[in-house]
Fold each of these.
Amino acid sequence: MLRLLYQQKWSLLLLLTIAFGCRKQEGTGGLATIKGRVFAYNIDKNGTVTDSGYMADVRVFISYGTNTWTDNDVRSSFDGSFAFQWLQPGNYKVWAISKCDTCDLGQRSVIREITIKDKKETVTTPDLVIYF
């Protein structure tokens, strides 16, 4: 009798682990993608826009779930495009750093909060607009 109860206990524990332990957290290992583009304004010392367009080689960062740190980063392509691939469904923050003359440290983050709902979804963010 005791042996049967012991086996049932472990069977129940295994079943619960399979049922509740298979939920994937935000991050890599999935089939979803977040993509977008970086648009930049070049501002001179007088605050006048001297040039603008989609910008290459800008670091774009991503945080998974409620993380407050950078989980990964990519650089924008020649046309300003970027993509984070192989993601799980969940919540993400995507951002780039922009110059800011009125900010304490001279820079600010341009952040987009994104939710991936489907395991094969591709989410396109609005442009990340930065100043340099």
Note: The two ends are 74 Å apart (CA to CA).
Amino acid sequence: MKTIGIVGCGAIGKALLRAVENGKLSVGVAGVTSRTESSAREFLAAFSRPPAYLSLKNLIDSADMIVEAAGGAVVASLAEQVFAAGKDLMVI
């Protein structure tokens, strides 16, 4: 099973995580990172099997594909890091 790493834990990131939790999205979640770690960790704790909160580097290393759900301001920098690691990036 392919794994995704989610960058951003706002409305889109949360919707992706709920879809995985409810079986509507058939992927594994390698982890999540967000600029607001405390609120992301609080949200993740509500899941029956919460994904790990990881640093961006560890997230990129751990996932097959990175999903950007953090907003356009991070795309250029994120793309550089993800592509340098030989991984795929989905920008939402």
Note: The CA atoms of residues 3 and 37 lie 21 Å apart.
